[in-house]
Amino acid sequence: MMTLAIHDQRLAKPGLQSAALRDYDSVRRAIAFISEHWRTQPTIEAMADAAAVTPDELHHLFRRWAGLTPKAFMQALTLDHAKNLLRDSASVLDAALDSGLSGPGRLHDLFVTHEAMSPGEWKTGAGGMTLRYGFHPSPFGTAIVIATDRGLAGLAFADHGDEQTAFADMKRRWPNASYVEDTDGTAALAQRVFDTRLWRADQPLRVVLIGTDFEVRVWETLLKVPMGRAVSYSDIACKINSPKASRAVGAAVGRNPVSFVVPCHRALGKSGALTGYHWGITRKQAMLGWEAGQVGLH
User: Fold this and answer.
1) Which of 2, 216, 269, 294 has a beta carbon 3.0–4.6 Å from 273's, enabling a disulfide?
2) CDD domains, alphabetically (predicted)?
3) Of 92, 177, 264, 287, which one is the catalytic site residue?
4) How far apart are CA 133 and CA 183, in angstroms?
């Protein structure tokens, strides 16, 4: 597996955060252009112009960011690629269950262990809980990391200037919790999530899932989807024994509070269509393209 495109020091040192976020801003502009024009196979010069960088800079940016050339990344945004991600998606979930991945242990590449908050705690809107939060650079823009003493409870993303709006959106999920800004205290979690060198079985990432019983079942199913694969909403519905609940599954996917870690970006329409994503389709494309680089698409 390739190392994280954004060096860990950029995640750790506040003075270097702007470099990481500038990388994603250029990537975001390139992705938007590629998404609109991929059928015409645009040149790297055209992609670079859209991203406001030179062709050489764009090439090195994508190599640094995801281990991909711009051309390979363009291939990762095609409908054909999305259909390949869905290939045998139902059997992927079956294999996960057969391997015992439905319980604590290695649930996917990040080596996640999880627990669900009790229904009583959820019904109170997390009343009496203290949630610590911080803003950190990531490969996908500013990450908003929210934590309890038991582990990671929330992960959201924002473009420059929209950080407080995104944070307010997260707070509405748990309106009765107390919130304390703790950038230093949440930095290690950000590091653990986005530095692939820390994706180790002996250091599992603890996640607390705060939602209804149905939502938690959907999110637990998403945790079984490996990097480089995807599932349809109907596959998830069947897996949780609610085959007619695809629409409700889609709503639960959209309410996933731990983006990227609980990989809701790997949920696609049956046709391979990306459909919606709470933090923007461009960011969903960025995550799928970044993951293509990690699993070795060249």
Assistant:
1) 269
2) ATase
3) 264
4) 7
The tens digit of pLDDT for each residue in 84-129 reads 788 766 666 666 555 444 433 333 566 788 888 766 677 777 778 8
Which residues contact residue 93 at a Cβ distance below 8 angstroms, ignoring those fewer than 6 apart?
Answer: 221, 224, 225, 231, 235, 236, 239
Q: What is the spatial distance between Cα 31 and Cα 33, in angstroms, rounded to a whole number?
A: 5
pLDDT (tens digit per residue) in 53-89: 999 999 999 988 888 888 888 888 887 777 878 876 6
Amino acid type, 196 = T
- Give one word for 151, left, alpha or beta, with left for phi > 0 and alpha for psi -120 to 50: left
Residue 140 has φ and ψ, to the nearest 5°, of -125, 35
- Give, in order, the Cα–Cα distances in Å from 117 to each of 91, 148, 202, 212, 239: 29, 11, 24, 9, 22
238 assigned to active site: no
